[in-house]
């Protein structure tokens, strides 16, 4: 049965009264905050569209950045692998060059020694990878010299050290005497090896070494005894050289450049030779004769 107008009015009045009571009983509500307003905005159509657009854009950008990072990591990894391969190839080339040149430099054949110097100069003139090769050869030659100068060195080690000394001393020394100059007028002369002296060879530090000069083969046995005495003292003995008879002094002489040989080295060489050669004149050379002489270079001139 439908409600009458009076009944409907009564129900409306009751609902209005209840609503008024709720407003009076409930505490006053604070105005909506920023978060609530944002939430309400994004719940609307415009807000929802804007939110989905931003999220989708960020997703695309993050995906692109991740892809770039993956590609960059792969490129870095490839670069590292290539660098390792390049380093390995460089080491192989350096070792191969050292193995080719070193036997020439320590050979007892002068022609091979000169060829080794020429090849070493070619390597030293290059750049980049060849720098390490030159350093390795210098270190290897320094080791050869040190081993050959030891009192207990083997004949082969002595021969190799003597060859290195000859190559380095070929840059000019009193050993190269002008023909007919005589003992008092010895003059240094340039040799073919002088013109091709390598910086790698010049970087090697040579210990004391004595070149023995004789005017006749009759003096060779005495020279051999002198070499043996010097070797026991840890002195290099690059060999015995024949000179013109008129250049031979009247008394045994130990010639040296005063500013290139220490007093300790002189005393050691003199003590090694004194039991065999007595008297032995200590003969300093003039500065003009010592221009290209390397340190620790001495000459023993045996009288006839």
Short description:
This is LytR/CpsA/Psr regulator C-terminal domain-containing protein. It comes from Ideonella oryzae. The chain has 10 helices and 5 strands; from the N terminus they run ααααααααβαββαββ.
Overview of the molecule:
The chain is an alpha/beta fold and 304 residues long. The chain has a domain of 210 residues. Helix content is 58%, strand content 9%. The chain has ten helices and five strands, in the order ααααααααβαββαββ. A five-stranded mixed beta sheet has the order 2-1-5-3-4. β1, α9 and β2 form a beta-alpha-beta unit. α3 packs antiparallel against α4, α4 packs antiparallel against α5 and α5 crosses α6. The longest helix has 61 residues. It is rod-shaped. The protein starts with a helix and ends with a strand. About 9% of the residues have low confidence. This is LytR/CpsA/Psr regulator C-terminal domain-containing protein.
Number of helices: 10
Strand count: 5
Give the overall form: rod-shaped
Low-confidence stretches: 172-197
Compressed to H and E, one letter per element, the order equals HHHHHHHHEHEEHEE
Q: What gap, in angstroms, lies between the N and C termini?
A: 161 Å
Protein name: LytR/CpsA/Psr regulator C-terminal domain-containing protein
């Amino acid at each position: 049965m439908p409600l009458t107008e009076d009944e409907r009015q009564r129900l409306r009045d009751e609902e209005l009264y209840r609503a008024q009571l709720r407003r009076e009983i409930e505490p006053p509500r604070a105005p909506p905050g920023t978060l609530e307003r944002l939430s309400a905005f994004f719940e609307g159509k415009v807000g929802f569209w804007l939110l989905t657009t931003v999220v989708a854009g960020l997703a695309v950008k993050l995906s692109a950045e991740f892809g770039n990072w993956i590609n960059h990591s792969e490129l870095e990894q490839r670069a590292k692998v290539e660098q390792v391969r390049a380093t390995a190839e460089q080491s192989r080339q350096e070792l191969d060059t050292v193995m080719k040149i070193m036997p020439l430099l320590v050979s007892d054949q002068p022609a091979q020694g000169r060829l080794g110097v020429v090849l070493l100069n070619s390597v030293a003139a290059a750049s980049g990878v060849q720098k390490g090769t030159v350093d390795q050869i210098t270190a290897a030659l320094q080791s050869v010299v040190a081993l050959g100068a030891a009192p207990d060195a083997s004949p082969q080690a002595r021969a190799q050290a003597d060859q290195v000394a000859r190559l380095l001393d070929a840059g000019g020394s009193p050993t190269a005497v002008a023909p007919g100059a005589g003992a008092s007028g010895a003059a240094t002369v340039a040799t073919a090896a002088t013109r091709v002296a390598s910086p790698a060879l010049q970087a090697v530090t040579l210990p004391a070494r004595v070149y023995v000069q004789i005017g006749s083969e009759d003096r060779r046995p005495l020279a051999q005894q002198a070499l043996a005495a010097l070797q026991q003292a840890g002195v290099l003995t690059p060999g015995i050289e024949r000179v013109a008879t008129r250049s031979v002094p009247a008394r045994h002489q130990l010639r040296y450049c005063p500013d290139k040989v220490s007093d300790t080295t002189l005393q050691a060489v003199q003590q090694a030779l004194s039991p065999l050669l007595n008297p032995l004149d200590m003969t300093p050379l003039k500065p003009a004769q010592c221009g290209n002489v390397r340190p620790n270079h001495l000459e023993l001139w045996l009288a006839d």
